[in-house]
């Protein structure tokens, strides 16, 4: 049976899905999204992701087209196509189709939002990346000032990721006026003398669901945590650096540009948090 996607109330094969070129998502990148991992057939931290979706919708002044229960049902239906499997759930809402291209959205014939959701197999992160750690490349954070919203207009993030990869890294570490903000599609943590440090939530970074979970797990395990801004020069002298996201979980960074972090191996706190993270996932299914 061919997989279906969800589009505006219907489940249909991806090959049959059609969206108008006059959709504001296509014309302006006017929309928001979520990426949710599904472990063993269960959406991970779904409530938190749906809350952040609401937060992003509020941020762009777009009413949520679905209730929480309706979102849960869409997710459930898509996940059920491969029950028990690890998957990647993608949700997107745009401001919908209009008749004329106009920046302003109140003058428009207020169209109905376009709602799209799909589920695809979750690629297990490459084991070697976790064993050896990865190199990240620092780049100027050229993005706008609403980085706390998960919006689909991702051209800066796309260019930054490509630039990092072209320079031999797996991710960009973005720096604004000397302060490290986040990755192109991840948050970062640093370990400094046994303390786990990550920047506080501001408009300059996405409030990551993985970030929040790591802070929760660290606090439960009585690992000292500080939410404070981090200078690039401090990060380069850290004992450990990690990147975190729903797709990559907790990725150890062992090199930043040409600087090797500590002894160049994933550190003890990374091992500890990775273990706590896997236990948390397993406990969800008991
Ligand atoms: C810019 C940015 N920061 C951080 C994250 C990590 O967020 P989460 O842990 O919710 O996946 C992402 C995820 O894609 C992202 O795009």
End-to-end Cα distance:
30 Å
Q: What composes the largest sheet?
A: 10 strands, mixed
Would you list the SSEs in sequence order as H and E?
EEHEEHHEEHEHEEEEHEEHEEEH
Q: What is the mean predicted local confidence, pLDDT?
A: 96
| CATH class type of the largest domain | Alpha Beta
How much of the polypeptide forms β-strand, as a percent range? 25-35%
Heterogens? pyridoxal-5'-phosphate
Shape, please? globular
CATH architecture of the largest domain: Alpha-Beta Barrel
Percent in helix: 25-40%
* CATH homology superfamily of the largest domain: D-amino Acid Aminotransferase, subunit A, domain 2
Number of domains: 2
Low-pLDDT runs of 5+ residues are none
Secondary structural class: alpha+beta
Enter the CATH topology name of the largest domain: D-amino Acid Aminotransferase, Chain A, domain 2
Radius of gyration: 20 Å
Description:
The protein has about 290 residues and is an alpha+beta fold. It folds into 2 domains: about 5-120, 2-Layer Sandwich (D-amino Acid Aminotransferase, Chain A, domain 1); about 125-285, D-amino Acid Aminotransferase, subunit A, domain 2 (D-amino Acid Aminotransferase, Chain A, domain 2). About 30% of the residues lie in helices and about 30% in strands. The chain has 8 helices and 16 strands. The strands form 2 sheets. Strands 7, 8, 9, 10, 11, 12, 13, 14, 15 and 16 form a 10-stranded mixed β-sheet that branches. The radius of gyration is 20 Å and the shape is globular. The model has no long low-confidence stretch (mean pLDDT about 95). The structure holds pyridoxal-5'-phosphate.
């Amino acid at each position: 049976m061919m997989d279906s996607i969800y589009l505006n109330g219907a489940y249909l094969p991806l090959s049959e899905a059609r969206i108008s070129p006059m959709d504001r998502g296509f014309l302006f990148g006017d929309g928001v999204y979520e990426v949710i991992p599904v472990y063993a057939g269960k959406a991970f931290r779904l409530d938190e992701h749906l809350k952040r979706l609401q937060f992003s919708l509020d941020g762009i002044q777009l009413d949520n087209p679905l209730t929480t229960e309706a979102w849960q049902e869409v997710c459930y239906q898509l996940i059920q196509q491969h029950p028990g499997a690890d998957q990647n759930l993608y949700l997107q809402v745009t401001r919908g189709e209009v008749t004329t291209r106009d920046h302003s959205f109140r003058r428009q014939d207020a169209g109905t939002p376009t709602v799209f959701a799909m589920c695809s197999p979750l690629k297990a992160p490459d084991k070697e990346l976790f064993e050896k750690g990865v190199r990240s490349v620092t780049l100027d954070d050229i993005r706008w000032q609403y980085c706390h919203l998960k919006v689909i207009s991702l051209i800066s993030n796309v260019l930054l990721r490509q630039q990092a990869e072209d320079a031999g890294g797996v991710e960009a570490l973005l720096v604004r006026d000397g302060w490290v903000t986040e990755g192109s599609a991840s948050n970062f943590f640093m370990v400094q003398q046994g303390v786990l440090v990550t920047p506080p939530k501001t408009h300059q970074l996405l409030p990551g669901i993985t970030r929040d979970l790591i802070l929760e797990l660290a606090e439960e395990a009585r690992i000292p945590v500080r939410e404070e801004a981090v200078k690039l020069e401090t990060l380069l002298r850290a004992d450990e650096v990690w990147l975190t996201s729903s797709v990559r979980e907790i990725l150890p960074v062992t090199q930043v540009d040409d600087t090797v972090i500590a002894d160049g191996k994933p550190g003890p706190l990374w091992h500890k948090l990775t273990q706590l993270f896997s236990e948390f996932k397993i406990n969800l299914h008991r």
